[in-house]
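agent: user wants the structure for Alpha/beta hydrolase family protein from Kriegella aquimaris. delegating to structure tool.
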Amino acid sequence: MKFSLLTLVFVVLVQGCAGQSQLIEDRLETVVTEDLRYYLYFPENYKSKVDEKFPLLLFLHGGGEAGVDSLGILKENGPPKLIAQGKQFPFLILAPQNPHKKKWWNTTSVVQLLDTIIENNRVDKTRIYLTGLSRGGGAAWELAVQYPDKFAAMAVVCGMAPLPYAAWIDKNMPIWVFHGEDDKSIPFSESENMVNKLNGMGYDVKFTRYPGVGHNSWVKAYDTEELYEWFVRQKRKD
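agent: tool returned. relaying C-alpha cells verbatim.
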C-alpha cells in the first residue's frame, strides 16, 4: 500500500546581480511515497460478532526487521511472534514494516495506513493502542507527540525518548515503559530520564526495568500477559 505526502512552503536566499541579498518567497509541492507492507491480525471472534467494534494495537518493530525483503521477519519479535506461536489476542493488531534499512519510521505514512485500516474495519476509535520496540519505540514516542488525540494507551520498549517530547504528550494517555538496565544499544537512561520527567509532570506512567538484561528487553516485555490485560482496560477519556 502506497501513501503520498507533503506540501512544503519555503523561502530561498539568493545573491543578486548587484551583490545584494534578496529574500524570495516561493512554493514547491513535493510528494513522498512509501510502500508499506503489513500484517493485520483479527481476533478469533471478529467474524461472529458482526455488531461489535474491536480495539486495535499498532505495533512498530525495531531496526533489525527494517528494509528486509521478507514480511515474515516480523514474526521474529513482539506480538507477530506470539501470533505465529498460536497466541490469541482480543484486539486487531496492525504490524507494518519499515521499508528502509537505515531510515527512521515515516510516521506520517504509518498513520495514513492506520487510518485506512480503521475506516475499513470494525475498529473502536476510542481504543487504539500503540507499542514499539527499539527504533519502533522511538517512533512510538514520536507518534504520541504528533497525534496526541489518537491513542488510548502506549507501551514503549527500549526506545529513544527525547525529553522535550514530554510536554507534548496527552496527559490522559496511560504509558508503560520497559527497558533493560544493561542495554548497550539504547541506554537505559533514555527511558529512565523520560519516565522521571513524565512522573514529575503528573503523567500516568508505569516503568518496568530489567536488571542484567541488554537490548533485547522486548522478549520479556511482550511475554508479559499483564501488558495486554492493561491495554484492553484503556479507553480514551475525551
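agent: one observation worth passing along. Residues 69 and 99 are 8 Å apart (CA to CA).
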